[in-house]
Amino acid sequence: MKYIMQLMIILLISFVGELLYYLIPLPIPASIYGIIILFMLLEFKVIKLDQVKDTASFLIEIMPLMFVPAAVGLMDSYDILSKNLISYILVIVVSTLAVMVVSGRITQFFIRRRGEARE
Amino acid sequence: MNEFIAESAYFGVSISLFAFFIGTLIKKRFKSAVFNPLLITIIIVIAVLLLFKIDYDSYYNGAKYLSYLLTPATVSLAVPLYQQWQLLKSNALAIMLGIISGMITSLVCVLAFALILRLDHKDYVTLLPKSITTAIGMGVSEELGGYVAITVAAIVITGILGNVIAESVLKVFKITEPIAKGIAIGSASHAMGTAKAMELGEIEGAMSSLSIVVSGLLTVVGATVFSYIY
Questions:
Q1: Cβ-based contacts under 8 A for chains A and B
Q2: Tell me, what's the ipTM?
Q3: CB contact set of B226 (below 8 Å; sequence gap of 6+)
């Protein structure tokens, strides 16, 4: 019964997310609406953590697996990428690295500055 | 045989699971960030498909059920986010500045390369949403008139890359605060990176989840503004 309840809540929220995507003309996917809805429901104590926690943890644990189909799909994308392959790869590699370093360092800088100010 | 595989409901999922199991074993055995389970899985599955001449559509016929779970799994990210909410609120400024600077870095990088490599406008807008989660990125690319299929490929490559390099990059650039690690991974490589952040710890995972949402939504606006520049 526990898992039926938990799965029902998470899938119902996913469905409501889909509905919002259908109704609102913005490029915001069902999953983003869903994350916000579940968070609100937890924050305003409409549902308790125990009512979703086990199923949520299970889904998060197997999440890497869910990216495999799309990633394997890259084997069919070579044709569309080949025209500008080197440019694309260059942009992707450099920007991914830059974003990771900049956002990480800036967050860390402000966390530490705040920590020092407090002492 | 290919006909049977194409009809099979379980081939796609089981080969993916088995490959992931092998990937995890290799990672455990060698403990190096070079042996990334997701990357190993992708290589094994592609190798098997090519070796047995199975086309992608046949594989996807079964494997689509894994993709089906992606929305409920992403919704579930609200749970760690809720659990870390206090920590998040007390570091709100640092977190927001980190995410915003990451988004701007991503857009500026794409702009700089478009100028240097003389990409045309269509290629430029195709790459603008490359750091955000697939579903939002596709929408943005379509809206701005990009090649949606290339955007999807770029997002997936970004995600795999982020997942693979995260541990080494954080180490080399001395990013050690769990909050900063999560923000860095989520801003650079959306949900595929977040899967890695979850492995590193609960705080990292929660912060990375937050980055997907905030960075994704901000990029809708940011990419639109940047599309007028070049």
A1: 320
A2: 0.92
A3: B107, B110, B111, B128
